[in-house]
Amino acid sequence: MSQLRGEIVAKAIMIQGTGSGAGKSVVVAGLCRIFRDLGIKVAPFKGQNMALNSFITKEGGEIGRAQAFQAEAAGVEPSNDMNPVLLKATSHSGCQVILDGKVYANMKATEYYDIKKKAWKSVTAAYDRLADKYDLIVIEGAGSPAEINLREEEIVNMKVARYADAPVILVGDIDKGGVFASFHGTVELLKDSIDGLPQKEKSDADYIKAFIVNKFRGDLDILRPGLRMIEKKTGKIVIGTIDYMGDLGLHEEDAIPVERLIPRYKNDFHKPVKIVVLGLRYISNFTDFDPFMYEEDVEIKYSLDEADINNADLIIVPGSKNTVSDLLFLREHGIEESVKTAVKKGISLVGICGGYQMLGQKIQDPFGVESDMKEICGIGLLDTETTLDRTKTTCQVSAAITSPRWFDAVESTSSCRWNHLKGYEIHMGQTTGDVGLFRISRLNDDVLDGSAKDNVWGTYIHGIFDNDGLRTAVINSLRLKKGLPAREVQVNYFQEKEKAIDRWADILKSKVDICFILRQVGMDACLKKMAQDI
């Protein structure tokens, strides 16, 4: 523990990056698992996140999906305090601002700067609450700390490091090129004082203690002279070089990994069950479909290509942060017609959240929640209508299928517990009409959700495919249509996620000097155990 701001607070280590996509999120997750295994009570923290991939906590608050995943790696329950400010893009220049888990307002970038003091209070208060509960906080930065036009206003990088008195490890993506210039440039830019702030004995650059080179391909012996030179030029050591690992099967935050967009193995082309997820422009919660990656008989692809749609066994319209905009995009580019043609051929179609809203007869937006259009026709494949409103539904739910007949293979999947499904809701608006595929239980009430018609169904439940039995039943319904026999549940998704986190933690331990990090945060008692584990 360290004395700061007149009170006892947890130790902290901060992982920043030379830019977006450097690997900060997964490094934080890996460290959380390593520290958990060392017996340290650890929690993740990111003051401000910008992502469409979000998660609902037990408190009913919305946080970045990456922080929920990091909490899972730490073995603790995700909480609103782990990501007090979440920004969800609604257009090229606007976003929905979420403070302490709840929607604050939809804003343009310039408007958001007007509430930065309020947002900073949320960041510091959330951090203090975590610090009271945990022995170590692993903090994640955002983008680059050396964006010189943002340094006075940012509330997620060096301002947080100064507040928490946290040593910083800077991660760089060498696969993008220019990693040494990025390390050196970041340090040099952070040596400058910030206009309007008092001079400090300690510059922001002094908080950076070491570098990690990420996504390295090649011969380490050829890289070593560069590592020595950057250490000499900056006075900061390189504590690890992590090989390019491809798709580790971990939850991603900002975008679907490139490796996930193409077949992982040659025989993926020959897998019997083919699922196509429409690659919407404002796709949200694409991690809903991660469980299918582990199914040996399933090929999953993100695509808007007509040939892929027509050759699928199942088409999924995913969630969207701007349902109206994405629906218009599908319509204007002929993709809506391709989907309708596929459904007429007998191809199954599922809509999740915003995708579910699109599949109805119409979407009404009387308050201009998403656009200036008061009403827009839906794809028209379900007998439902959706009215968008200002109130956002955010809650964890349990659910039961009210009509198993809609899932042809439910009864043939003996281990399918369709009355004990888990998931969460994140949506603005209510859907009415032929609704009642699921009965869902929230904190204080039970409501009907979802609709089905012929070979089409939809639901608001995110994470529905995390349920092993239901997912297997859906796969079996596709297998039976192709003349293939139904099968039992083959994948325990929770266990697969745990294995993936453990594999990544083992890689991190073998490639990064974890003992250096432990010394930075004064966890000397853990060094002996760490040495034994290595």
The SS-based structural class is alpha/beta
Major β-sheet strand ordering: 4-11-3-12-13-14
Which spans of ≥5 residues are poorly predicted at pLDDT below 50?
1-8
Helix count, per DSSP? 16
CATH H-level superfamily title of the largest domain:
P-loop containing nucleotide triphosphate hydrolases
Q: Ends: how far apart?
A: 26 Å
Supply the CATH class of the largest domain.
Alpha Beta
Report helical residue fraction. Answer: 25-40%
Radius of gyration: 24 Å
Task: Please give a handful of descriptors for the protein shown.
globular, 2 domains, Rossmann fold, disordered N terminus, 534 residues, alpha/beta
Précis, in short:
The chain is of the alpha/beta class. Helices cover 30% and strands 28% of the residues.
What is the topology?
Layout: E1 2-4, E2 7-9, E3 11-17, H1 24-37, E4 42-45, E5 48-50, E6 54-56, E7 62-64, H2 65-74, E8 85-89, E9 94-99, E10 102-108, H3 109-112, H4 116-133, E11 136-140, H5 158-164, E12 168-173, H6 179-190, H7 204-207, E13 208-216, H8 220-234, E14 237-243, E15 273-278, E16 283-284, E17 298-303, H9 306-310, E18 314-317, E19 319-320, H10 323-332, H11 335-344, E20 348-352, H12 354-358, E21 362-364, E22 375-377, E23 384-401, E24 421-433, E25 438-441, E26 446-449, E27 451-453, E28 456-459, H13 468-481, H14 493-511, H15 514-520, H16 527-533
Parallel strand pairs: 3-11, 3-12, 4-11, 5-8, 12-13, 13-14, 15-17, 15-18, 18-20, 20-28, 21-23
Antiparallel strand pairs: 1-2, 6-7, 8-9, 9-10, 16-19, 21-22, 23-24, 23-25, 25-26, 27-28
Helix pairs in contact: 1-2, 1-14, 6-8
